[in-house]
Amino acid sequence: MEDCLFCKIVANEIPTKKIYEDDKVLAFGDINPQAPVHILIIPKKHIAGLDDVREEDCALLGHIQLVASKLAEDNKLFDGYRLVNNCGIDGGQTVIHLHYHLLGGRTFGWPPG
Ligand code: 5GP
Ligand code: ZN
After folding, report:
1. What is the DSSP string of the chain?
2. Cys-Cys link to 8, which of 4, 13, 35, 79 (CB 3.0-4.6 A)?
3. What does the pLDDT look like over 19-59, one tens digit per residue?
């Protein structure tokens, strides 16, 4: 998708330090980390957000969660972590390409701000 920041990262048009990649997903460090570990996990396929996920994407979403769990282990987040999707304006979504934040390395409060 043209003019999508994360599609440009997938296409190597914007240099980013990749943390994990396979044929379906890409993970890279957030440019403005909110925790000692702050990794963005995205599908390579352009999906605008969680509201745009369709039945055929269910395996892809499950795969993203497995990748998140693997990356948490790789980063030694044995005391826990948070996996976040911000959806839409009220959810705080700023980049319109589905992504999950893997946050760890500190204790998070609840409810979120
Ligand atoms: P959202 O607010 O949409 O849930 O999250 C978007 C995230 O993308 C933010 O945490 C922001 O810091 C991150 N981000 C925005 N632009 C870039 C970029 O060019 N490179 C990287 N690595 N992260 C970005
Ligand atoms: Zn995109």
Report:
1. -TT-HHHHHHTTSS---EEEE-SSEEEEE-SS-SSSEEEEEEESS---SGGG--GGGHHHHHHHHHHHHHHHHHTT-TT--EEE---HHHHT--SSS--EEEEESSPPPSS--
2. 13
3. 999 999 999 999 999 999 999 999 999 999 999 999 999 99
